[in-house]
Specification:
InterPro entries: DDH_dom, DHH_sf, NA-bd_OB-fold, NA-bd_OB_tRNA, S1_domain. Residues 1-14 have a biased composition (Polar residues). One of its GO terms (molecular function) is nucleic acid binding. The chain has 648 residues and is of the alpha/beta class. Helices cover 35% and strands 24% of the residues. It folds into 4 domains: 33-119, OB fold (Dihydrolipoamide Acetyltransferase, E2P) (Beta Barrel), CATH 2.40.50; 125-228, Nucleic acid-binding proteins (OB fold (Dihydrolipoamide Acetyltransferase, E2P)); 232-452, Alpha-Beta Complex (inorganic pyrophosphatase (n-terminal core)), CATH 3.90.1640.30; 518-640, Roll (Diaminopimelate Epimerase, Chain A, domain 1), CATH 3.10.310. It has 19 helices and 26 strands. A hairpin with a 2-residue loop joins strand 12 (185-195) and strand 13 (198-208). Helix 3 (244-262) crosses helix 4, helix 11 (423-430) packs across helix 12 and helix 11 packs across helix 13. The longest helix is centred in the C-terminal third of the chain and has 26 residues, at 489-514. It starts with a strand and ends in a 12-residue tail after the last strand.
């Protein structure tokens, strides 16, 4: 029997005789105890020979039937009655016998003085992980979803071991247990069954825990989540001393993401729509989806709780955040979900992201960023729950987001390591990294069966696919091209060959179109400056996009000259910048342009040597010429490069 603090003397609504003065002043209370069972108490909460408050529910010739709780009733035989009773009368009874068939017998007790103690039902709580069809169980956890269907109400309840769907039926299309809301700590009891290849609890009872007990349950729940959220203990794929503090940050983010899954919150990923962005997002997606499947009893949970979408701009645009927010609010309204956790990859570190983040802040949507663009930490970090960026540890863009996210994925789910050994090299080559460990990453990929030409082809295939996918996820296509989560090795090889060859053909066609129209000048610093009007001389609305066209043109000029080179590709209201051997500091240039040409509406950013800028169409000439002036004053630094540079 579990008894809580003593209640006021008396039966339900009736007071027992007042204690004498000695008792009232704290002397030992030797009065008999009468237990008042909570409505959900069962026979497990009672004991033979104990006294209970009861209520008459039926009068028969041979006695009365009484309820001591909603789930526990029995007979007081006429031979044991001490008076006459009617339905609804209250009395004190003693439990005298529990028969083999489960019937319970009571005696009527006439007491002059007693004290009352309330008994709260303490069911045997089962863990979600390990439930078996046919079991009658009680689960304690947090309601993480409450979805009304045309039939039952489906509650998703999470404990630290997993999440299970619980079906409660009031009547078709009517909300069962309307007092229970997402975020409540509950006890839900019922029978475990199988529905559409998933375990489901058919609810007999679902109760919000009282405030005090809810706080205790919440404390246990949170502590257990913290324990299970602990990331795997894995070392980075290659030794890299400069990466160690970044790896510590990734570990904390892995813990946060695992905890998010355990708490039943959806995750929405936004990533830059290029090779490095995809090399970042795909491993994380695979790791998180695996973990979702491990946590949720519903095998389709990952489809509902994880969403990945590319972003074209180098920052989180209001168009994207508005779509994401609308999707999240619709999910909450239609499916009873929590609002999602937003994970920004290869994007999201700059002041341009702040308006979008502030929009999400109205709804308390948590945000984390993994990025290698030059950050504005003072602007973004007050709005972020986690921020991983090499610049925060005196490193730079050469540590690509794909490299970091491969390690993040392994911390979440180390079992996928074998599928990811080539991905950091693809990310580095795609983003033209000159990191000191690129040779090690390429060697690691070669050990996994990919030579350097394979890695370059995969990067080209990803870039080509990203262009045509535009704002779509393209999960199977991208996974097959990267060979992560791909079920057919031959299809991967054929797809990469096809896409990379098409990409190479289209790039060459574009270079042929622009070559005769490239303007060249030598800056006072000695650097070469190349300009191309992409609106006038490049094929439009096809592959390669302006950024890719500028990058490919830039690479050819770097190889031709062997000198420091800057390339500008521009359209009516944008320009794309590439630099080798010149320290441009593009984010700083954007800030200065806004100060010097406030009417031009300049926005954008990037790395020290790679970036894109938008501006008002009518101020293009002023923006471009001011940029050129700044480039002429930029410091020559041969260590800075945006081209592929892998030692043979």
């Amino acid at each position: 029997m579990s008894d809580n603090t003593a209640g006021d003397s008396g039966t339900r609504g009736d007071s027992s005789p007042e204690p004498d003065a000695d008792t009232a002043e704290g002397a030992a209370d030797d009065r008999p105890t009468v237990y008042d069972l909570a409505s959900d108490c069962t026979l497990e909460d009672a004991e033979v020979d104990a006294l209970y408050h009861a209520e008459v529910n039926c009068v028969v010739d041979y006695g009365i039937f009484v309820d001591v709780s909603d789930a526990l009733s029995g007979l007081v035989h006429e031979s044991n009655l001490d008076g006459d009773y009617a339905v609804g009368d209250r009395l004190v009874v003693r439990l005298t016998e529990v028969k083999e068939n489960g019937d319970v017998a009571f005696d009527d007790e006439n007491l002059d003085d007693y004290r009352t103690e309330t008994v709260v039902h303490e069911p045997t709580v089962s863990r979600v992980r390990g439930l078996t069809p046919g079991d009658e169980v009680t689960v304690e956890g947090e309601v993480v979803q409450a979805k009304q269907t045309g039939g039952p109400t489906i509650f998703a309840v999470a404990d630290a071991s997993g999440v299970v769907s619980c079906a409660a039926f009031e009547e078709a299309g009517v909300r069962a247990y309307p007092e229970v809301e997402v975020g409540d700590m509950v006890h839900v009891s019922g029978t475990v069954e199988t529905r559409e290849n998933a375990l489901q609890l058919e609810v007999d009872s679902l109760k919000r825990l009282p405030e005090g007990r809810a706080a205790e349950a919440r404390e246990r729940f949170e502590a257990a989540l913290d324990e299970r959220a602990e990331p795997a203990d894995v070392d980075p794929l290659v030794e890299w001393e400069a990466f160690e503090p970044i790896h510590d940050d990734l570990r904390e983010l892995a813990r946060l993401l695992r905890r998010t899954v355990l708490a039943g919150r959806p995750i929405r990923v936004r990533h830059h729509a290029d090779g490095d962005g995809m090399c970042a997002a795909i491993p994380v997606q695979l790791a998180l989806e695996n973990f979702v499947c491990d946590v949720h009893e519903d095998p389709d949970a990952a489809q509902h709780l994880f969403k990945r979408l590319p972003s074209k701009a180098p920052y989180y645009e209001m168009e994207d955040v508005t779509r994401d927010l609308n999707f999240a609010l619709e999910g909450r309204a239609r499916h009873g979900q929590k609002l999602p956790f937003l994970l920004m990859l290869d994007n999201g570190s700059t002041e341009e992201d702040v308006p979008a983040y502030e929009n999400l802040a109205h709804y308390d949507i948590p945000i984390a960023v993994v990025d290698h663009h030059h950050p504005d930490p003072e602007a973004v970090e007050p709005l972020l729950d986690a921020h991983v960026n090499p610049y925060l540890h005196d490193e730079d863009y050469r540590v690509t987001t794909g490299m970091m996210c491969v390690e993040l994925a392994r911390l979440i789910d180390p079992s996928i390591t074998g599928e990811l050994e080539h991905v950091p090299a693809v990310a580095g080559l795609s983003d033209r990294s000159k990191a000191e460990t690129m040779d090690d990453y390429v060697a690691l990929a070669e050990g996994a069966g990919y030579d350097e030409s394979d890695l370059l082809d995969i990067g080209e295939a990803l870039d080509y696919a990203a262009h045509w996918l535009r704002y779509s996820e393209g999960k199977t296509l991208v996974n097959d091209a990267l060979n992560v989560g791909c079920e057919d090795e031959a299809r991967h090889e054929e797809l990469v060959e096809f896409l990379s060859e098409r990409a190479d053909r289209d790039v060459q066609r574009q270079l042929d179109a622009v070559d005769d129209h490239v303007e060249h000048e030598r800056l006072a610093s000695g650097a070469h400056l190349y300009r191309i009007d992409l609106d006038e001389y490049a094929h439009r609305f096809t592959y390669p996009a302006p950024g890719k066209t500028t990058g490919e043109l830039h690479d050819t000029r770097v190889k031709e000259t062997g000198d420091p080179v800057i390339t500008i590709g521009y359209g009516p209201d944008f320009c794309v910048l590439r630099s080798d051997g010149v320290r441009l500091d593009i984010p700083n240039m954007v800030t200065e342009l806004n100060e010097e040409l406030p009417e031009a509406g300049v926005s954008g950013g990037g790395h020290l040597v790679v970036g894109s800028i938008k501006f008002v169409k009518g101020r293009r000439s002023a923006v471009i010429e001011t940029l050129v002036e700044k480039m002429a004053d930029a410091e020559i630094d041969e260590a800075l490069s945006s081209t592929v540079a892998i030692d043979d």
